[in-house]
């Protein structure tokens, strides 16, 4: 009995030890080894930080050529002082990894289609899409072209070495908590990972298109009705480079080698693959010193992206001989992306064009080894992709490629119809020396340097705003744009026809720009880049119609501008859509059909000043009414049974004025013919009902803030799975069409204002914190300030003696 008892104890002990040290699968989800995870010495407890800077004062980093000093200021910004650029970029890689290792590595896994390796088979379709659309292809080409620049290659390699030195120093206790939760370790950093970070942003900013939806709508409506409902350009827009701009179009345009025709393919696509948020964009502007109180230019930039923790951005200063730059940068790439140096400041907004084209491929037979092109059968390239699956067997996918690009939709993936074979040509497949451009911008001294730097900017195309302490302001709509014939790529195209290829590219000297315009400012907000006089065809489904007009109206009237004026602008919650839509809705109602409850509802909106403040009720009522009206008016699109675009809101308000009796005002689901007045009243009843139901569950405080319900979510938070690492229910004003363009999980991901004094002064904020560790006091400490429209004054150190009273830790990095 004694022997049996001892054996049983031994078995239980071994089993318990096994359970505590082994990752288990419960209900299809992985559970980390609980013994390690719960350990008070090396488990998740080790990630709790009571100090903002729990970093050693002295760190040994093999490969440094000289000691590097890192000064951490009170807001967590590291100021890196090095004796040469190699050491500066190596230190940057180490410090950013020290702050954000899990985030920077996870984003490269996502870009490369490798998330299944971390979380299992639930991510396989995401991973397949990433590889099928050519994310690794584009990153590889970008790496090749960037590696041809010795300066860029040195920066990437030094950065890589810094990251790897940090990774090699980590014990289990030191790992970021996400590695412990998911039970894996970081892999070595390589230069391709930096290229993947840049590819991640190219996808975010150029990855949305509506070509297949347009093709569905074209088949449904016919060309005449499609062109009426989806005009390429409407009256009243305020383009980035306005009519009568100072530069003009003094050049002979390059023309594509084509007969310029559209051979429409009437094929219905029943399923559209996921794409980035079409509202990914930004605001930027710069105003001349002739219109500022200080007499020097002021530049402002805020980028509108997904709101996540850790933030996409991290702030730092880089200092080496002939290199002193401060600003926001991507985790995973050397240099500063948006920022300023002792001479210049720069920023970005997305420059929308149609950057993705789809081609229908005709294969010779079921072997899919050849496809028709220019009257000949042409060989197909084939590659077998293997996906490693956490806790599962590997999965393979065969990806075919044509000269257009990879076949994304085929019998194995995408649409439910196996006969569809759609190849993608995307600007993300082409080379981009964007990192070379950024590093040159970082050390630029004047406009000529800025202009030389952005010649290397290919993708994602951007409106690059610029201001200099010598008084210059400028803005270029910069990128590598194909010279398309009108309509090219707006619909699914015949992949066998060479006329549909990207045959000619617009010379960069022909890209739209302004330098020191007479009006005294430059600005952009993702609207049309040019007016109709520009000699190249431009089009995109995501052109913005509201923020840009609000910005330009304000800049037209401001005088003796101060930094505080720009702070107020960036945080403006004024909405232009309700200012234009509500009078039309009110005017369309038949007064004799209104009841007392209608009057009470309408009265709140009549007194509204169109400010989207969190405590306002009117914006909730407006959007419930407007959204109901919009869906009733365009019900044919919502009930089409196929993915189709819907006429945009700017067109809708114009349509209400000019075509109130159009057949589209009829609601198909009813038994009679509605007028615009009928639709407005039906929508009013629907909006009131929705509002009353919604209001019954509310406390009565902050109606708009609660309705919009903005959140900043952890990158891995799905459905509240990592709620403690996220911030929910943030009471922030604004809406997508306001300058303060906030949505539930999207909005200004950073704000920057630079006054080009000597030396420059700068202010900024972002909705997060410098640390990627949820246990750090600097994980989300800026969110409340960002919410309230507050700014931090940046410490821009000209030398190591500056701002000593703000320095909380001095760290020395040196080689053995």
Automatic annotation (TrEMBL):
Keyword Hydrolase annotated: yes
Cofactor: Ca(2+)
Cofactor binding notes: Binds 1 Ca(2+) ion per dimer.
Keywords carried by this UniProt record: Calcium, Hydrolase, Metal-binding, Zymogen
Binding site for Ca(2+): 354, 357
GO biological process: antibiotic biosynthetic process
Annotated active site: 282
InterPro entries recorded: Ntn_hydrolases_N, Pen/GL7ACA/AHL_acylase, Penicillin_amidase_A-knob, Penicillin_amidase_dom1, Penicillin_amidase_N_B-knob, S45
GO molecular function: hydrolase activity, acting on carbon-nitrogen (but not peptide) bonds, in linear amides; metal ion binding
Entry keyword Magnesium: no
Family of this protein: Belongs to the peptidase S45 family.
Protein name as annotated: Penicillin acylase family protein
Organism the protein comes from: Fulvivirga sedimenti
Source species taxonomy: Bacteria, Pseudomonadati, Bacteroidota, Cytophagia, Cytophagales
